Amino acid sequence: TSTHLGGLKESLRSPGSPWPAELIVLGPGGSARQEVLRKIQELSDSVHRDPFMVADLDMLASRHATFRQALPRVWPFYAVKCNSSPWVLRVLAALGTGFDCASQVELEQVLSLGVAPSRIIFANPCKASAHIQYAARRGVKLLTFDSEEELTKVAKHHPEARLVLRILAEDSKSRFPLNTKFGASLEACGHLLTRARDLGLAVVGVSFHVGSDAQAIADCRRVFEMGCGAGHHMSLLDLRGGFPGVFEEMASVINAALAQDFPEDTGVEVIAEPGRFYMASVCTAAVNIIGKKAVLGPGGHRRLLYYLNEGQYGSFRIFLREPTPRTPIVVKEFLSEPHLFPCTLYGPTCDAFDRLSLEEVWLPELDVGDWLIFPSVGAYTCSMSSTFNGFPPAYVCYATVRQLRSLLEMAP
Ligand SMILES: Cc1ncc(COP(=O)(O)O)c(C=O)c1O
C-alpha cells in the first residue's frame, strides 16, 4: 500500500541549465521508497506504466558523511561514470568532493558546474590526444597513465600535467577484474618513471585499485621510493574505487595500512575514486510487467516468464555482471502467503539475450500490469543504458526530505 505524501514539486532550474526541472521535496516523515509507491499508485490508473526511478539525494549526502567518517585521511573524487546525472554531480559539487572523469564529455559536465579544475582527476590511463589537449586548455592537470605511449602523448599535448602512475594490483577477488586492460607492473614502473623524467614530465603519485587488495598500499610505497629516486616529487596516493558493502572492515584495513606506509607526517595527500559506494543505494527503480508466459519445466513443474519494460539495454545492463540475480520486491497484496515459482525476467527488446540474469528468481504468480521494485540501482545503471529498439531511458526523479536548496545555491 502506498501513502500520498503530497510531495511539493519545486523547480530549481536556471535558464539554459541542463538540469532536470524538478526536485521533489518530500513532506515530513517521507521517504524515497514511499515516493516510489505513491508514483506507482498515480500511474496505476493509466495504461502508461513506464519504468521510473527515484533518486534519494539525502542518501547521497549520507554516504558522503559515512565515507568521510570512516576514512578521514582520504578525500573522495567521485567516479562520474557511475552515475553522471546532473543532480548527483550538483549535490556532490556542493558537498565539496572531487571528481574522477574518464573523457572530455565528463570533464565538460563537471567543469560546467563551476568546479575548479584542481578538483578533477582525468583518471583514464589511455586517453585520446584530443581529450588530453582539452584537459590542458581547461587547466585539468591531474592525469593518470600506465604506459610509455601515454607519456609521449602527454609530453606533446599537456607538458604541465601532474601525472599519477596507475599500477597493477592483484584483483582476482574484484567483481570487475581490470588487470588485463590497465595498470603497469611493478617491474615496469622504474622505466616509466625515468622515461617521464627524461620527457620533462612531473609524476606526482601512484594509483591502484584498493577494492582489489588494500594490502597493496605497501606496493605503492615502493613505487613512491622509485619515483623519488628518479627525481620526482611524489605527494599523492590514489586508492581509486571498488569500496564494497562491508565498508567499515575495509576502511580499518586501509587506515592501518596508511598509518604504516604513509603516516600523516609524510604530507602525502590521499584520494580515492569511489563510485558504487556513493550511488548504489541512492536509486530505487519501479518496472512494470508487460508480458507473461507460463511454461512447464522438467518434471512438469510450472515456471513463469515475465517480460518487463526495463532490461539489459536499459538501466539493468550491470545486473548480468553481478554474482547473484536480483529478486525484486513485488508490489501486490495477497490474501495469504503466495506460492513461489521459478521465474525468468526478460527485458522489453527483441533481443533474446535481454534478460535480467541467467538464473531464475522465485516470485509469486503475477499479472501483466503489476509492478516490481528494484532497490539499490543507483550505480552503473542510468549511465550505461541505451535506447536500443526504441525504448527510452527510465525517467528519474530526484527526491529529498531535507531542503537542499541552500546547499545547492552555495555550490560549488
Ligand atoms: C579508474 C577507476 N576509478 C574508479 C572506479 C569506480 O569504482 P567503484 O564504482 O567500484 O567504486 C572505477 C571503476 O571502474 C575505475 O575504473
From TrEMBL:
Task: Tell me the gene name.
Answer: LOC107142026
Q: Which residues carry this modification: N6-(pyridoxal phosphate)lysine?
A: K81
Task: List the active site.
Answer: C350 (proton donor)
Q: Which residues form the signal peptide?
A: none
Protein name in the entry: Ornithine decarboxylase-like
Q: What does this protein do?
A: Catalyzes the first and rate-limiting step of polyamine biosynthesis that converts ornithine into putrescine, which is the precursor for the polyamines, spermidine and spermine. Polyamines are essential for cell proliferation and are implicated in cellular processes, ranging from DNA replication to apoptosis.
Q: Which SUPFAM superfamilies does the protein's record reference?
A: Alanine racemase C-terminal domain-like, PLP-binding barrel
Q: Which family does it belong to?
A: Belongs to the Orn/Lys/Arg decarboxylase class-II family.
Tell me, which GO biological process terms does this entry list?
A: putrescine biosynthetic process from arginine, via ornithine
GO cellular component, alphabetical, reads:
cytoplasm
Q: What is the lineage of its organism?
A: Eukaryota, Metazoa, Chordata, Craniata, Vertebrata
Assigned keywords, A-Z? Lyase, Polyamine biosynthesis, Pyridoxal phosphate
Q: Where is the Orn/DAP/Arg decarboxylase 2 N-terminal domain?
A: 59-280
| Top-rank lineage group of the source organism | Eukaryota
Q: What cofactors does the UniProt entry give for this protein?
A: pyridoxal 5'-phosphate
Q: Does the keyword Transit peptide apply?
A: no
Molecular-function GO terms, alphabetical: carboxy-lyase activity
